[in-house]
Amino acid sequence: MLIEVKVPVLSESIADATLVSWHKKVGDIVRRDESLVDLETDKVVLEVVAPGDGVLKSIKRQEGAVVVADEVLAIIDSEAQAATVDEGQTNAPATISRLSGVAATAPRVDAKSIEIYLSPAARKLAAENNIDPTRVSGTGKDQRITKADVVDYLVTNKSHTNRSEADRVQANKSETDRSEPRRDNRETVAAGRMERRVPMSRLRARVAERLKEAQNTAAILTTFNEVNMDPVMALRSKYKQAFEKTHGVKLGFMSFFAKAVTEALKQYPVINASVDGQDIVYHGYYDIGIAVGSPRGLVVPILRDVEQMSFADIEKGIADFGLRAREGKLTLDELTGGTFSITNGGTFGSMLSTPILNPPQSAILGMHNIQPRAVVEEGEVVVRSMMYLALSYDHRIIDGHEAVLFLVAIKNALEDPARLLLEL
Fold it and tell me: Is the whole model's pTM more than 0.85, yes or no?
């Protein structure tokens, strides 16, 4: 029986995708749910898996091709698989006995020895992070462990996320290699001066398009303020060990900012609104986009309903986004929507910047690095840990005084963090 491997249904906002790389070649044995090919869209890299067991009979589209939803990418011959295995082929996915931990190749399950099956991507990720596969729950067919299962295990078991820096660099390099389409690069040499021309990735091209759209359509202004971070730093230092022990995640600064932003948005709802034609759409919920760096560039996954989240929920969500951004596992839904965004240039040493809007949102908050500076308090010069804040906003619907008061509300909440805990 011939099985077609097709492009999955894409989001309404995505017309097509670029075929990045094949993980199998014609004639290879493939297993159901095993990763076959990566597709890059404007927002994420999609992993297309095998719909059934068999042998890869033919590849219809090559790397670098632009494909659309439901287009046939390859053909799998399910009957050829059985014949090949009978002839003694042993390159089927490895299995590991849950009882003995010994690797095996016979893909069957019996009452005496429960075996688990790992896809190649899952096996590689588990090995990189020193994970015992017997501890991971498989969600694929016949309890097969997929790469997503290993990622979920990493998120929920943070002890396994402390990889060495070398491992992180290698993982990021591998993801970058997979994420960028293999296109012909052109090098030119003139008078001993070399230039290399490389096409933009789909993500970079889409980011450029949206940012230019924001500049062309919105009346963007930026207002600034500064905040004394000593109270937040003192609270964080006092409770960070107890917080991590209780919730299994570190207490960072972003949860304080997310909470402060949410409370300020409640006071000034127009900051949380968006423009739709001649209408202003006021959102009765608070979906906050958190800018996260990834090997493919900057992405902005969305924390949904932040007003209902605890500090621990926010920190876990951000840690999850960071991990899956590096692994290329963020979904389209997680990158779509949002009513407000926060970007933290301070992690890279930025002192001051003017962040650009993320359409159709009407405002974005920029955080910066924390520096000890001399400030005047009650007539005396004292040293405080200060951070500059920048709020870029769409002046078409947000007036200057609303933007300034919104930023002051964030400043007041952060300089008295007990207000956030007591929801004052």
Answer: no
